C-alpha cells in the first residue's frame, strides 16, 4: 500500500455509503491522531484502539443523525498525496467551506485542525479536508 491515509479515508467513505455503524481500520500513529481529531471535532461518535497482532486496529463508531439517518461526515477529501505533497504556511492555511469544515494538518507540534494551527502559528502538510 503506497498511501495509508488515503486507504483510511476510503474505508471511512465506504462505511458511510454502506450505512455501517462500525468500521475497522489497520492502525498507525498518524491514523490514530487523525481519529482523535475527528472525534474531538464531533465527526465520529467513538473510537477504540486494539493492539491485536503486530499492527493493531482502530474501531470507529460512525455518527448518524437518528431522525434523518444522515452521517455527520458529508465529504472526506485527500489533499496531500505521496506523489504531490501540499504544504501551507500558518498565514495561508486553507479554510474549508469558509470555516464550516476542517482541514487536518500535520505540523511539527502534531496533527491538528487548520484553526488550531493558526492559533499555534505553525504550518505543515495539509492531509485532508472534512465537512
TrEMBL record:
Transmembrane segments: none
Presence of keyword rRNA-binding: yes
Gene3D superfamilies: 3.30.1370.30, 3.30.1490.10
GO cellular component, one term: ribosome
Matches recorded under InterPro entries: Ribosomal_uS8 (IPR000630), Ribosomal_uS8_CS (IPR047863), Ribosomal_uS8_sf (IPR035987)
Keyword Ribosomal protein tagged: yes
Keywords for this protein: Ribonucleoprotein, Ribosomal protein, RNA-binding, rRNA-binding
Classification via Pfam families: Ribosomal_S8
Classification via HAMAP family: Ribosomal_uS8_B
Main function: One of the primary rRNA binding proteins, it binds directly to 16S rRNA central domain where it helps coordinate assembly of the platform of the 30S subunit.
Record PANTHER family: 40S RIBOSOMAL PROTEIN S15A
Recorded family membership: Belongs to the universal ribosomal protein uS8 family.
Subunit structure: Part of the 30S ribosomal subunit. Contacts proteins S5 and S12.
Name by which UniProt lists this protein: Small ribosomal subunit protein uS8
Species the sequence originates in: Algoriphagus pacificus
Amino acid at each position: 500500500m503506497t498511501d495509508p491515509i488515503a486507504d483510511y479515508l476510503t474505508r471511512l467513505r465506504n462505511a458511510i455509503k454502506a450505512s455501517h455503524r462500525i468500521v475497522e481500520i489497520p492502525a498507525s500513529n498518524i491514523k490514530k491522531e487523525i481519529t482523535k481529531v475527528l472525534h474531538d471535532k464531533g465527526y465520529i461518535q467513538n473510537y477504540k484502539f486494539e493492539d491485536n497482532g503486530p499492527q493493531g486496529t482502530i474501531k470507529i463508531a460512525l455518527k448518524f443523525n437518528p431522525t434523518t439517518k444522515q452521517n455527520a461526515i458529508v465529504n472526506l477529501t485527500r489533499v496531500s498525496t505521496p506523489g504531490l505533497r501540499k504544504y501551507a504556511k500558518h498565514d495561508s492555511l486553507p479554510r474549508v467551506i469558509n470555516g464550516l469544515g476542517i482541514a487536518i494538518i500535520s505540523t511539527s507540534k502534531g496533527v491538528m485542525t487548520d484553526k488550531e494551527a493558526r492559533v499555534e502559528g505553525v504550518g505543515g502538510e495539509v492531509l485532508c479536508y472534512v465537512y
